[in-house]
Amino acid sequence: MPKETFETLLATGSKAYTTNNHAVAIKAFQEAFQIAQTPKRRMQALDMHIAPMTKLKDLDRAMTIAKDMIRLNRTSPQGYLRAGQIDRLRKQPEAAAKWYRQGLKHVSSHDSEYRQLEAGLTKSNDLEISLRVRSCPRDPFTTFPVEVAEIILQYLTYRDMSGALRVSKGWNNFLCKSKLMTTTLDFSGGEQGRRTEVTLVALKAALRRLTQYPKIARMNHLSITATADLNNRLPHWFRRDTLETFTLDSTIPDSTLSILLTSTALQELKILSDNGLALGLVLTHCRALKRLTLITSPKAARNASWINGLYIDHPELQSLHYHNRDPETFFSIGRITSPNLKHLSLRRVGSSDLKLDQLLNLRSVAFDDCAISGHITLPVSLQHLLFGAAKYIIRTLTTKLPNLVSLAMYDNARGHAPTEMFLDPKPFLESVDISSDLVNDHSAIRLAALPRLRKVAISDNSKITGVFVKTLLEQTQGQIERIELQRCTNVGTDTAEWARQMHKGTVVN
Fold first, then answer.
1. Tens digit of pLDDT for each residue in 81-120?
2. Phi first, then psi: what are they for 366, rounded to 5°?
3. Per the database entry, which stretches of residues form a coiled coil (predicted)?
4. Which of 9, 110, 369, 436 has a 20 to 30 Å separation from 188 between CA atoms?
């Protein structure tokens, strides 16, 4: 009878383990360990040996094997993971945590299983707390002081609280007195793809819980009848001037918009409008506004096409998102000098020169499908920059952005190569997302010079090959955590497999 090989013994043991024949599995793994010729194979046999031991509740012998694994290779995470797992099964979380800490000390942070050690340490700490502190479920609104119950309420959304009203009379009485229920209407919740329509009945039930005119109203996903009812109420709400936050995902009537402009309390506004003058009117009249998101229809954009460069100088504005939905017209914007502006997002906007370098509080800028025929100057404070779609005619773009953290450029900003963005030092840049043929294999050298780069995404590219990935990973020495390549026609399917084998700490898709 021929002598069994290492592979056949492992296969025999695995098959016996899956059929709960643990004695046969243990014997097969022991024999595999005895004939193993390399440390890697010995580790594999010992690792598989522990599994049937734990099934038989022989945790002492299993721990002995785990310690043998650690002695065999102190830089491998497998022994520490097994030892920690065994001590957790023994309900000894403190001992388990010590194994995980030793593993984190000796195992490279670039190892693919390093995060499992971190997760094991977290689970051990949680288990220790659960064993020390006996859980005793109680109704917080009948047991705890009112102050504690109010702290708990801060972690509930409007949607959660609306559902909790049906728990008991005690909950109903307490929740109905909460400010979140008496001054707020919030229908913005719901997971993506699972948003249910807010009916007229649900809207009126929420309105009955109000003790005064609302301060916060996020009116999204309303049915046709609920929207009609809301449109009748909005003029009264705006005349009362109590609203501080207002969101509406259906088109606001012009008659209501004209009353909204009289508001002095409004700080956050998100609306859709058919009025081409809406952006200028809101910024001119609502002087307390801090956050504005305005989406205009094709009809609105055509009505406003005669405007020659809107001047934005709102003193309190911190966030401006303006999206023009007309596929044929660009909304014209001139100077932007709002001193407190932190976030700027523009879609289908046209401008000759866009000078933003004096906005020293600006942190993020997004230009999507915009037409800029002159110079763009950006402030050194900028951390996040996005250029989307191929409507740019950029002559000059300020590239000295030392504080930039993330950069995204899609569909070739014409007249400006994305790789030029890396000519100046960018010590904090962590994420690069480029859709462009202007990136080639040589671009990897420039990217590798970024000391904090963690994520690189390249799409719609026919120039780069597997050399780009190889150069980037070798030059950065495991610094990159993720490389995403989509529709890169000259990158072979074997590139990701090579990266997984040679650089286990990096995910390549």
1. 999 999 988 888 888 899 998 888 888 888 888 888 888 8
2. -135, 120
3. none
4. 369
